[in-house]
Write a structure and sequence with these properties.
Layout: H1 4-18, E1 23-28, E2 34-36, H2 40-47, E3 52-58, E4 61-66, E5 69-74, E6 80-85, E7 94-100, E8 104-109, E9 116-120, H3 145-152, H4 159-164, H5 174-183, H6 197-216, E10 257-261, E11 264-268, H7 279-298
Parallel strand pairs: 2-9
Antiparallel strand pairs: 1-7, 3-4, 4-5, 5-9, 6-8, 7-8, 10-11
Helix pairs in contact: 1-6, 5-6
The chain binds zinc ion.
């Protein structure tokens, strides 16, 4: 799933591609993408004749602003936008087409069909789902060390699922949570209330630095992510924990280990990110069992 840096990259490319273009016609091939209104004819009627002014972002949601209406779009697993000339053949899995008066069209393609689109009167999007319950925006002025510490509060939840919770902080998914926790030396199974003030500050800066570096690199192209112009991001070459199971930690050389935390595949350096009491023994026991199995296998 695209995370903040990938959605931000899509936002930038889309903004350059469609700002100033006027919609002449909208074709909906897969109504289930539409959430509000969910009727394709009503959806099209609202958009036809309107002009895209700018593309913004809130968390992992795109906000496509038009004159008099806001389109809120979530790409979910594999949603993609692309600008085409009308005569170009329409690729399979193209579900929504915004035809422009200049002979080009914006096409929304989504192999997994999990993406969503909502239309709102300008400003109304903030008081209704899906944007009304979102947490802190990490690359904005509201994200201060104090606001972050307050959002973590005295929660006894493990830090990784807490950072993935979009009602606490937006934009982070599995990749950038693993990266930020590795960069700040915090084990994903630590509870939020066990973090010291200094650890919270390290994590705060790690989140900002990781996201900024990834935005600069155009996001990470793991799985099928490409930006609005079909280009891949480059940050996957700079990941230090995510997807590097068995490879040496850049800081200490110990192999990165993979486990499951909160149901998600999780990448950790066992030396740089000290596990909380109890988990450590479990890991040792797991390794002991692995050795035992290998020995058994040789007999
Ligand atoms: Zn390490």
């Amino acid at each position: 799933m695209p995370e903040l840096p990938e959605v931000e990259t899509v936002r930038r490319t889309l903004n350059a591609l469609i700002a100033g273009k006027t919609i002449s016609e909208v074709t909906v091939n897969l109504p289930r993408i539409l959430q509000k209104p969910d009727d394709p004819a009503a959806f099209s009627a609202i958009l036809e004749g309107r002009t895209f002014t700018t593309v913004e972002r809130r968390g992992k949601f795109l906000r496509l602003l038009l004159d008099g209406v806001t389109l809120v779009s979530h790409l979910r697993m594999e949603g993609r936008y692309g600008l085409y000339r009308s005569e170009e053949p329409v690729e399979p899995h193209t579900h929504v087409i915004f035809r422009f008066t200049d002979g080009t069209e914006l096409r929304y393609k989504d192999v997994r069909q999990f993406g969503t689109m909502h239309l709102f009167a300008p400003g109304e999007e903030w008081s209704a789902p899906p944007l009304n319950k979102l947490g802190l925006e990490p690359l904005s002025a509201e994200f201060t060390p104090e606001a972050f510490a307050k959002a973590l509060g005295k929660r006894t939840t493990k830090i990784k699922p807490l950072l993935l919770n979009q009602e606490v902080i937006v934009g982070l998914g599995n990749i950038y949570v693993d990266e930020a926790l590795h960069a700040s030396g915090i084990h994903p199974e630590r509870t939020a209330d066990s973090l010291t003030k200094r650890e919270k500050e390290k994590l705060y800066h790690a989140i900002i630095d990781t996201l900024n570096a990834a935005v600069e690199a155009g996001g990470s192209s793991v799985k099928s992510y490409v930006n609005g112009q079909g280009e891949m991001g480059m940050f996957q070459h700079r990941l230090r924990a995510y997807g590097r199971t068995g490879e040496p930690c850049d800081t200490c050389g110990r192999p990165i280990e993979k486990s499951v935390v909160g149901g998600r595949g999780t990448h950790v350096c066992p030396a740089c990110q000290r596990a909380p009491r109890g988990t450590r023994q479990t890991l040792k026991a797991a390794r002991g069992n692995a050795v035992k199995h290998r020995l058994d296998g040789k007999q």
